[in-house]
Amino acid sequence: LLVIGIKRGWLKKLSEGLWVQCMFVVYDTGELMFCDSESGVTISINLDTVVGVNDVSKQTATGAYQGGIYPSFTFEIKTNEASYILNSDGAREHAEWIDLLRDLSPMAQ
Description:
The chain is mainly beta. Helix content is 13%, strand content 45%.
């Protein structure tokens, strides 16, 4: 079985109130994988479990980042178990990630 990476790139992930640079890869198997550069732990998200891919740019932040405003080009990947807040470098990359993840996530709003 040949697994092909559809998209890969560096994104910043909000982790306990801090932005951490992580490499993200989307595979044709419907899996999103990323490596936490601080812990070295690889995390996998089955895109079949994603219930939302939302643009949260300039919205009031929640959780550990509470009270602030998310920067431009920020989006959320939401499953029933977790929420991942990610930030890309620019408008084109932001739109590409959101469109791809929505296309590959059958339950995403």
